[in-house]
Amino acid sequence: QVQLVESGGGLVQPGGSLRLSCAASGFIFTDYTMTWYRQAPEKERELVAVVTSAGITRYTDSVKGRFTISRDNYRNMVDLQMNSLEPEDTGVYYCSRGFGHAWGQGTQVTVSS
Question: If pLDDT is split at 50, 70 and 90, which confidence band does 28 have?
């Protein structure tokens, strides 16, 4: 079955960095666009970053220039490098196959001094 397992969240000060990873299994990884979403407290889940099977990337405006999504088609993994973190980046980050067709369990990111 499809499995997505996120890791790498934690507590970081404003201006700091974190790298999230998502290990995928149970499907042909190279066939799918992969995405990262986040959900802040009392807010709806929002799309943060996209990487297509061809490696084309897209970002929501609020993270452009700060976040980088990448994929490793040999290890079936998709990462999200987050730099210059802001308190507004706080939330649970989810890896997804496609645009919400399958979800991981999420990993908490907290940006606070």
Answer: very high
